[in-house]
Specification:
heterodimer; A: 252 residues; five-stranded antiparallel beta sheet; 25% helix; B: 208 residues; alpha+beta
């Protein structure tokens, strides 16, 4: 009570988590991977900023998208980057993608009883040169997949991806089969369509779109280099390459 | 425990070029337990109107009978068939009558509306459980898979689809949406209506 007495039951609470909206998505190709996320950050019905990146370059062959509680997400990315730097100093090379995936699992599970409130999607190029996507739950359960959506509009985007990437509920023409991997231009179109659709129907998605493209070593960057809103983030030549493509999304 | 999700089920309607389509899944469940894979949620009202009633299964029956009664009374009094627009208003007022003890149904209406020139134009509408009408020009969705349906439909639908293409679009939208919803699925039914006929197809779907 205001008089400070304890004659009545009292309760106090503090909630250390919040949801900051937004959606992320990754699709693996035969020799490339696209990892994308919108840039809106919200809390409840308020927009905190229209540009808060959720997708981060880790190495020349790995990109991490983080969605959920933004404070935890940023801290988690910071710690993953730190561990990757230590690995570089110890081994004089970048950590392979599947090793980064296992590292993320152990880092998430280390916080099993006070978790990072984030869904992670790791995308990049495997040591054998194939495109790969790893998706995680907040406590480190993970799986390698060809495509995955997570975040506020996961329920809107994932059925569309099932249909367009995995060709679910579609029958191939007689004597033919569905392709296992789509070309980069098709994948980028599907990613843009997914986010414009999610922006249209979900209030927490919009403002900007960042699509990271990781290309396997030796793959032609035709159509990417010098394209509109394209920037190369690769640090070393003669390896895998990372690009980012920025697009506007509706702001309402 | 949400009453809206007690029995599961989803409905969607889409507009095409001189045609409309309405489709639903066929599941009836009690929470996670599936009971029937042939539970119809879409009913013909007239030759040119269909109504889909996703929500609490007992209220599906009650409301279907209620609508049948009111449409019959309208037909006798007016000596003509009810128009889709009018039927939508009837659905709305029927639900709002129970504003403080609602039927747990979110109806979807699809039909061909007669114009003053004597031709027919596509009509779709949906309401919430207390009868707030939504006259959309593209598509409407309702049921436990509504967010999945919104995402899939927003990605697949385009304006002025011919009847056959509209059938493919609504079928793919529904099938892929219900496959990501545990409360919907177990087969589907699709009705495609043009000015002079309705084509009804029952679709096979994932049974898990």
């Amino acid at each position: 009570m205001p008089d400070g007495s304890f004659s009545h039951p009292q309760q106090r609470s503090f909630n250390p988590y919040t949801e900051n909206g937004g959606t992320i998505l990754a699709i693996a190709g035969a020799d490339f991977t696209v990892i994308a996320g919108d840039t809106r950050q919200s809390e409840g019905y308020s927009i905190q900023t229209r540009y808060a990146p959720k997708v981060f370059r880790l190495t020349d062959r790995a990109v991490l998208a983080v969605n959920g509680f933004a404070a935890d997400g940023n801290m988690f990315v910071k710690k993953v980057k730190q561990r990757l730097e230590w690995y570089r100093h110890a081994h004089a090379k970048d950590m392979p993608l599947r090793a980064i995936a296992r590292l993320i699992q152990t880092m998430l599970y280390a916080q099993r009883f006070f978790p990072y409130y984030v869904y992670n999607i790791l995308g990049g190029i495997e040591e054998d040169g194939t495109g790969a996507v790893y998706s995680f739950d907040p406590v480190g359960s993970y799986e390698r997949e060809a495509c995955r959506a997570a975040g506020a509009a996961q329920s809107l985007v994932q059925p569309f991806l099932d249909n367009q990437i995995y060709f679910k509920n579609q029958q191939a023409a007689p004597g033919q089969s569905h392709p296992l991997h789509l070309p980069l231009s098709d994948v980028l179109s599907i990613v843009i369509d997914s986010f414009t659709s999610a922006t249209e129907r979900h209030i927490e998605v919009g403002d900007g779109l960042e699509m990271y493209v990781v290309l396997a070593k030796g793959r032609s960057a035709q159509g990417l280099e010098g394209g509109r809103g394209v920037q190369e983030l690769t640090t070393r030549t003669d390896g895998d390459r990372v690009f980012v493509i920025r697009r506007e999304l509706k702001k309402d | 425990m949400s009453i809206m999700e007690y029995n599961g089920g989803s409905v969607i309607a889409m507009v095409g070029k001189d045609c409309v389509a309405i489709a639903s899944d066929l599941r009836l469940g009690v929470q996670s337990l599936s009971i029937s894979s042939n539970f119809q949620k879409i009913f013909p009202v007239t030759d040119r109107i269909y109504v889909g009633l996703p929500g609490l299964a007992s209220d599906v029956t009650t409301l279907h009978e209620q609508f049948r009664y009111r449409v019959n009374m309208y037909t006798i009094k007016e000596e003509r068939e009810i128009e889709p627009q009018t039927f939508a208003q009837m659905v709305s007022s029927t639900l709002y009558e129970r504003r403080f003890g609602p039927y747990f149904i979110e109806p979807v209406i699809a039909g061909m509306q007669r114009t003053p020139s004597g031709s027919y134009e596509p009509f779709i509408a949906a309401t919430d459980l207390i009868g707030c009408l939504n006259f959309a020009k593209d598509f409407v969705v309702a049921g436990t898979a509504s967010s999945e349906l919104f995402g899939a439909a927003e990605g697949l639908w385009e304006p002025d689809l011919e009847a056959e293409d509209l059938f493919e679009t609504i079928s793919q939208t529904l099938l892929n949406a219900v496959d990501r919803d545990t409360f919907s699925g177990w087969g589907a039914v699709v009705h495609v209506m043009t000015k002079d006929k309705v084509i009804t197809r029952t679709l096979k779907g994932r049974m898990d």
